[in-house]
Design a protein that fits this description.
- It is a single chain.
- This protein is of the alpha/beta class.
- The protein is built from 9 helices and 11 strands.
- It folds into 2 domains: about 240 residues, von Willebrand factor, type A domain (Rossmann fold); about 45 residues, no CATH class.
- The longest helix has 25 residues.
- It is globular, with a radius of gyration of 20 Å.
């Protein structure tokens, strides 16, 4: 397993470079969830002009500043001020399966890096962002959304020290959060989805029927996706102690891949049916690149599942 100091490596220039200057547009505008309202730079049919940002592939051409293009021969998008903003809550799965990492960093560390990229982007656009993670033993934290630049440190100072262990607590955590955030917001779930089908479907539906904008970041290791094992291997259950099995990968590969692909299709179809976003985050790819691939398509109005980083 590739280990590294988690807190010090959450946000590096390579990761954030993929999304620097981008936006995270919302399909559902809502008021801020907390006392006080502030102007937030948001695109689309809004009130008064705020500033420019560089054009990114997928941006609507109707918001291109054609006059500036004629003067400078450079492509910029107009941004406007809107008195409303959308708060984002990032929920990170801390079950034991998220601790898996063989040829790469483990999935929980990768989810933290993706969350750090997302939080930095949202805060740079003055959008409130919070974070939540819990495990079945009652160990965890909930940090409410704020939009001040200094909020970034408070989001990750404690969560970076928490381990991923035990059975999944995602459904119970979501149910605990709902009374705290009664208004509509954006909820980003970072999870490997390893839980009973009806439990993940329940999590997605519980949030979406309340009008929240729900997005699943599906965190997977390459070994899980491709089953690259070639020799006899001991497989341990990371969510249950003393549970393991020695197997010959050649015997199980075809059946495993068939079942795993069915699991992927079912999860993607659940998201599509409920109007939730879906993007895949492979631990073998840059967290920033995976997030950028999703944002380009999401911001362009394409809500089809994004299955990986389109690194060129």
């Amino acid at each position: 397993m590739n280990k590294e100091p988690r807190k010090e490596s959450l946000l590096d220039s390579e990761d954030f470079g993929w999304i620097d200057g981008m936006e995270f547009r919302s399909r559902r505008r809502s008021g801020d969830l907390y006392a006080g309202r502030h102007k937030s730079s948001q695109l689309g049919g809004c009130t008064e002009f705020a500033d420019h940002r560089p054009y990114h592939p997928g941006d609507p051409l109707r918001q291109m500043d054609w006059r500036l293009l004629g003067k400078s021969d450079r492509h910029f998008i107009k941004r406007f001020e809107d008195e409303r903003t959308v708060s984002t809550m990032i929920i990170i799965d801390r079950s034991g399966s998220m601790n898996f990492g063989l040829s790469t960093r483990n999935k929980f560390d990768h989810a933290l890096r993706a969350a750090a990229c997302m939080a930095r982007l949202l805060l740079s656009n003055r959008d409130p962002v919070g974070i939540a993670s819990w495990d079945r033993s009652g160990d965890g934290l909930i940090v409410k959304p704020r939009s001040t630049p200094s909020h970034f440190e408070s989001l990750f100072v404690d969560i970076a020290e928490l381990p991923a262990s035990g059975e999944t607590f995602l459904k119970a955590l979501v149910e605990r959060l709902i009374p705290l955030f009664p208004q509509r917001m954006r909820v980003v779930l970072l999870s490997d989805g390893f839980m009973p089908d009806e439990e993940m479907a329940g999590v997605l539906q519980t949030l979406s029927v309340r009008g929240h904008e729900v997005i699943l970041g599906h965190v997977l290791a390459p070994e899980e996706l491709h089953f690259t094992f070639t020799e006899g291997t001991r497989f341990e259950d990371l969510e249950e102690e003393d549970s393991w099995r020695d197997i010959d990968p050649a015997v199980y590969r075809e059946a495993y891949l068939q079942q795993f692909n069915q699991f992927l299709d079912q999860l993607q179809n659940q998201c599509t049916r409920l109007g939730c976003g879906y993007f895949r985050l492979l631990t073998s790819e840059s967290a920033g690149a995976g997030l950028a691939a999703f944002l380009r398509r999401w911001n362009a109005g394409n809500f089809a599942p994004v299955l990986g980083a389109d690194i060129k």
